[in-house]
Amino acid sequence: MISVKEAKNIILNSTQNFGVEEIPFIKSVGRILKEEIRADRDFPPFNRVSMDGIAINYSFFKKGQRDFKVEEIQAAGSKQLSMQNAENCIEVMTGAVLPNNCNTVIRYEDVTIKNGVATINVDVIKDKQNVHDKGKDGKVGDVLIKENKIISAAEIGVLTTVGKSFVKVAKLPKVMIVSTGDELVGVDEIPLEHQIRRSNVFTLVSLLERLHISSETAHITDDKPILKSKIEAYLQEYDVLLFSGAVSKGKYDFLPEVFEELGVEKLFHKVTQRPGKPFFYGKTSDCNIFGFPGNPISTFVNCLAYFYTWYHKSVGLETKEETAILNADVTFKPNLTYFLQVQLDYKFGHLVATPIKGNGSGDLASLVNTDAFIQLPNDKIEFKKGESFSVIRYR
Q1: How far apart, in whole angstroms, are the C-alpha atoms of residue 181 and residue 204?
Q2: Nearest to residue 344, comparing CAs of 366, 378, 369, 363?
């Protein structure tokens, strides 16, 4: 068996470049940006009025003038006006270009306009107040969004501002998720006493959808020739195969030998962790194969800890390790890395992890009451309240 660290290093050294595609900007939320987004002009592109009110030349206010004759109205979206008399003012609307010969805006709430004359009712204003200077947010050519960033609603706003109707993003892998076993029946079927419904495959589908990856699913019975035939076709058609079950040493766990017969390079099969073993990882020249154990918690944690890590590195997305403070003492004697289910909460500004006791790796329902796995290393037995460890969130 290899350690969790060794397994992750192997996976990170086996990443796959899926290429780049150009898609409409409105379809790009959640995707990984594969180009720099630069300003096509200054932002804002003109001295922008940021309050409804009047625009004046500040020097006259400074000299004590409080009454200003209104010359015109500068509306948002209209061409820039020029104030003809420096002692006058122009009414301005939010978003409008600041008129020539004006440098300061006083909001309507602080003026009274009567018979075409605006009277300023406050004693203190600042030079250039309520004016968003041209180029303050960015100059033409400036990088506004760096490559390899996840596109969110905030980035959509920038894309539209610079006129990017199409944007380059990382292509998504083509994924097949396969469940095996004669004990499994469909979600809408009534299982017999010795059967259970297929759940792991749809858990994996949902975990991949969090990454905006669509997937296909298949179920194959415990028949080696059928397994081999179908998997041989999948290896040619898909970038990634995710399996749930049939990777242990049971008499019907045919997957390891099927992989070997089909020329899959085995990179590891067992990892010193709980839950989550045995766990097969291998590849061909064009396909990566993740063989997760059949127990639902094992499948869940392996997808988060390994597939997510592999995918993020493949598409160039940098991720930061998150830690949480253990909220109770924990003792774990086996010499294994322990992925312990926890509830997360913030206390005094710190992320705190409270252990939740489940009923083993088959207790799928326990996931409903927890938020994350805290990763306890295999170099000690006792883990004290107040110590910090890495966490893997699923909420």
Answers
A1: 17
A2: 369
Cβ-contact 183, 191 below 8 angstroms: no
Q: Is 48-132 in CATH node 3.90.1750.10? A: no
Question: Which amino acid is it at 83?
Answer: M
Q: What is the DSSP string of 73-110?
A: EE-TTSPPPB-SSTTSEEEE-TTPBPPBT--EEEEGGG
pLDDT tens-digit readout, 25-71: 999 999 999 999 999 999 999 999 999 999 999 999 999 999 999 99
Q: What is the CATH number of domain 4-18+172-314?
A: 3.40.980.10
The pTM of the full predicted model, rounded to 2 decimals, is 0.85
Distance of CA 275 to the CA centre of its chain: 26
Architecture of domain 20-43+136-170: Alpha-Beta Complex (3.90)
Q: What's the CA gap between 62 and 124, in Å, rounded? A: 9
Question: Looking at residue 53, what is its pLDDT?
Answer: 98
Strands 215-220 and 166-170: unpaired
Closest CA to 354 of 392, 333, 385: 385
The pLDDT score that the predictor gives to residue 279 is 92
How far apart (Å, rounded) are the C-alpha atoms in residues 208 and 237? Answer: 18
Q: Cα–Cα distance between 298 and 336 in angstroms, integer? A: 14
Report the alpha-carbon angle 92-95-98, nearest 5: 50
Q: Calculate the CA 295 to chain-centre distance.
A: 27
Token reading at 225: 């020739």
Supply 203's token pair.
Answer: 């858990």
Residue 110 has pLDDT above 90, yes or no: yes
The structure tokens listed for 176 are: 């097949």
* pLDDT, tens only, 193-250: 766 666 678 899 999 999 999 999 998 888 899 999 999 999 999 999 999 876 876 6
The per-residue b/e assignment along 155-191, b for 16 or more CB within 10 angstroms, e otherwise, is: bbebbebeebeebbbbbbbebbbbbbbebbeeeeeee
Which two tokens mark 158?
A: 């920038």
The full set of domain ranges for the chain reads 4-18+172-314, 20-43+136-170, 48-132, 322-393
